[in-house]
Amino acid sequence: MTRPLPFDIAPWSVGLSGVDAERMGHRESVFALSNGHIGWRGSLDEGEPLGTTGAFLNGVHEAHPMPYAEDGYGYPEEGQSVVNVADGRIIRLLVDDEPFDVGSGELAVHEQRLDLRGGVLHRDVTWTSPAGRTVRIASTRLVSYAHRAVAAVRYTVTAVDGAASVTLLSELAANEPIPGLHPDDRVQAALDRPFVSVDHHAIGTTATLVHRTRRSGIAVAVAMDHVVSPAVDQRVETSPDLARTTIAIRLGAGEHLEVVKLVGHAWSADAAPDALRDRAEGAVADAARAGWGDLVAGQRAALDDYWQCADVVVDGQPRLQQAVRFALFHVFQASARIESRSVPGKGLTGAGYQGHTFWDFEAFVLPVLTATAPDAAAQALRWRHAGLDAARARARQLRLAGAAFPWRTIDGTESSGYWPASTAAFHVGADIAAAAMHHVQATGDAAFERDIALELLVETARLWMSLGHRGADGRFHIDGVTGPDEYSALVDDNVYTNLLAARNLAGAADAAERHPAAAGALGVGEDESSRWRSAAGDMAVPFDESRGVHAQSAGFTDRKRWDFAARDPYPLQDNHPYVELYRTQVVKQADLVLALVFAHDAFTPEEKAAAFAYYEPLTVRDSSLSAAAQSVIAAELGYLERAADYLAETALIDLDDLQGDTALGVHLAALAGVWMAVVAGFGGFRDGADGIAFAPRLPPDVDLLAFGIRVQGRTLRLEVEADRTVYRLTGGGVPLTVRHFGEPIVVEPERPIEAATPPLRETGPAPSPPPGREPRGFRDALAG
């Protein structure tokens, strides 16, 4: 683990004083801003020192050849990678002709603060130039929730100790490379300058750059304008890859210059460049008319609405409180204005994973959005629905029926060339189906089920029928797949995959029954629906009778166990060939344990306890996706200290840079897992065909835990204390029945009801993780 940056501890913000030039990448990811459409990394305004530049538009990417040592049928021919669009963050400052540089002169104050309620990034600086002139600099940056195409900066310079000549150089810079995007130098070379200039314009005070990617053919227009007080002349210049506005003024002591920089964005693979230019410049003009105050108010209004339900209160642990809100803030801003787009694994905070979306979005992030921001979840599912034609084409290429969704992608087509962990990881289809079914159940949106979810369910169900087969034992088997655990590949009857496939099949049949006309239009008849139900009911679920535990996949528990006594360095994938990992009992990330979470009602309490005891000593957590699921099951089984350890690990993964790679962007699915560990773990939240249930208990040293979920347009909030839980329902006039530790209670709107917490059963010590993979203790982790 790298040394964490010394972020301060506050309930509604994350702040950092000083500048560590060696750790810029970490702070840039933590302080990144996004609205799901635009992403700006949290770099310094003047652009230096710099970790990695980052100005992204969701969906803008460049295609590149896929380098293979040997070709094979069905291998994707092109890869995709996120690229920087024209970057409008840069504002350079000269004071009496000396450039402001945090590495020169005297830096008396330097603070950045991410406001989790205001949705803005503040920066405050007091700097004395080498010549002895002192200025105060205050900047506030935002990526607008109300104006989807706009990001903005308010930049103020104040002369402190005497008159000073101040010059601002505000820029749009295009074709800024992202080093290390791809390990193959040939591919990296193709990505270093991905854009060709189409046009550049300067009209009045507005400057616009228009570019097109060389291979993927995506056109992008970025425009900027400035509102300056006091009014001074602006000199605007453009060239193919750079636009610059120069603003100069002489300030007396105590006087200040304020500049509001507005940056508009537009992109399309189809629209004409002139149309995109009009959109970008129109977005800037609209934001200028609204004014800075309106932009800031729009941030607060959107977050106020979100936090009303989504806020998690953790009294007694200030650092955990901050970390939980930080996690939920990043989940929100990654999806606030996606509008029929997906959310990459890093959101728009960095170029890690080359900007790709994976299965963990549907598995980890979408349940949080459905429970707290359901409109955003619906938009993401609409994006998957829009990709059905590409998924059908991929299935046909693989000689399968239905739709085979990509393992990693930006535009909906497969962009992974490592087929054991991509093509064979068919569970992505079941993850999408589960997210769609959960969304319909939680929102009650019958029209969405008919128009969007049904077709997703039908086509993924058809995939499972063509993948699986009836065995001599009469069971339905799905062979040659890869489950969530990437240290096992090409296995038969992966329990996670099979259980979610069974739910997919049954859910498709149920949805077709509720919407017969729409199902008929998709060619679904009674015979096909009946076959789905039969396969779901007869799905093979491996169980090792001799050991009394579910096998992660057929024969898994008969393999040789990994030799943990050898004390191999972690992560194992960096020190051992996959062929060695694949044939032993060692688990990269929760797989069978993840099935206990997502298919919770398929296991008895005794089976869950046996599975956790068996797999905990095998799971090395070489993935950021593991700790959240382990926390949920540890809490359910009564191992509250261990559950708290894993909660802290998940919550601090980016603030403490636990994996040493936060510079590439935040771990968005793990941050969503914080909500999972709190609400499904310590809250005991479960939902299913028989409704929703809770079994709330407090983490250690926490005096109060409170959280909320949206249920069919209403908000249910729980306030959990040591011996009781208060349920509060707002919105709508219909009571809601929930189960509290198995007992039904009726919660009426605006009439809180209290329920007692039963004693915790004796559990004994929690099973031990692998040697060298023990989590930091909850208290030690939160002590900083």
From TrEMBL:
Residue intervals of the Glycoside hydrolase family 65 central catalytic domain: 325-676
Species in which this protein is naturally found: Microbacterium gilvum
Domain Glycoside hydrolase family 65 N-terminal: 18-268
Chain spans, region Disordered: 749-784
Protein name: Glycosyl hydrolase family 65 protein
Entry GO MF terms: hydrolase activity
Pfam families linked: Glyco_hydro_65C (PF03633), Glyco_hydro_65m (PF03632), Glyco_hydro_65N (PF03636)
Keyword presence, Nuclease: no
InterPro entries cross-referenced by the UniProt entry: 6-hairpin_glycosidase_sf, 6hp_glycosidase-like_sf, Gal_mutarotase_sf_dom, GH65_N, Glyco_hydro_65_C, Glyco_hydro_65_M, Glyco_hydro_65_N, Malt_Pase/Glycosyl_Hdrlase
Keyword vocabulary terms for this entry: Glycosidase, Hydrolase
Biased composition (Basic and acidic residues): 773-784
Family per record: Belongs to the glycosyl hydrolase 65 family.
Segments forming domain Glycoside hydrolase family 65 C-terminal: 686-747
Gene3D superfamilies, A to Z: 1.50.10.10, Glycoside hydrolase, family 65, N-terminal domain, Maltose phosphorylase, domain 3
